[in-house]
Amino acid sequence: MSHADIIAKTVRFVQDTLKDAEGGHDWWHISRVHTNAKRIAETEVCDTLVVELAALLHDIADSKFHNGDEEIGPKTAGDFLWGLQLDAAIVMHVQQIIRHMSFKSSFDKATFYSLEFGVVQDADRLDAIGAIGVARAFTYGGFKGREIYNPNIAPHLNMSKEEYKNTTAPTINHFYEKLLLLKDKMNTDTGKQMATQRHQFMLDYLQQFYSEVQ
Ligand code: ADP
Ligand code: NI
């Protein structure tokens, strides 16, 4: 099968699987990550098939919505890819990328790294910051029934992972806990460059937000 055919089949599988997904993790998130990943991959010497497949399949089954089962994503992706009769090395590499993409493992000590992983992780992080990042954060917060902002719950920078998981902190806090930290975690030069403007937009957004609060 050609590269284009493999990607077209994968796009169809992902669109179909995610047709009822919530707004922050829907097909259009995947589509933006795919586009970002291709753009970054153009500036790196890497396996673009692995990059594109991992970008398309990275949120195919989120453990957050499957009782915390961390293997559900890699397994769903693997089952699909084995059906396309791709090389085992490609399938297993894509599965490793998906396994390590989660927010949880991105703050753990890295146990796996490849350039292809770095590209896809950057592409996913870019969709969590900037104007889209603002929209996704409030969508997720609304989905979880969180407050937008509460002046009595100051943004915490030093929350443990366990506390973070259980917190009902307002969505504004999420900017300080995660979104403003992503710029300095980018893996590739192109990713860093693309993150700069989006990061600045969030700072401007927060400044405007507080000016309206006062
Ligand atoms: P992804 O799987 O796409 O890397 P996550 O599942 O960690 O990202 O989060 C999906 C989106 O929801 C992101 O834009 C993220 O910033 C947002 N999000 C995750 N946790 C929170 C939270 N506690 N408050 C607000 N937004 C959140
Ligand atoms: Ni994602």
TrEMBL record:
Which PANTHER family does this entry report, sorted A to Z? Answer: HD_PDEASE DOMAIN-CONTAINING PROTEIN, SUPERFAMILY HYDROLASE, PUTATIVE (AFU_ORTHOLOGUE AFUA_1G03035)-RELATED
Known SMART domains for this protein? Answer: HDc
Database matches in InterPro entries? HD/PDEase_dom (IPR003607), HD_domain (IPR006674)
List, alphabetically, the Pfam families matched: HD
Species of origin reads Mucilaginibacter psychrotolerans
What is this protein identified as?
A: HD domain-containing protein
On the tree of life, the source organism's domain of life is Bacteria
- Domain HD/PDEase: from-to ranges: 22-138
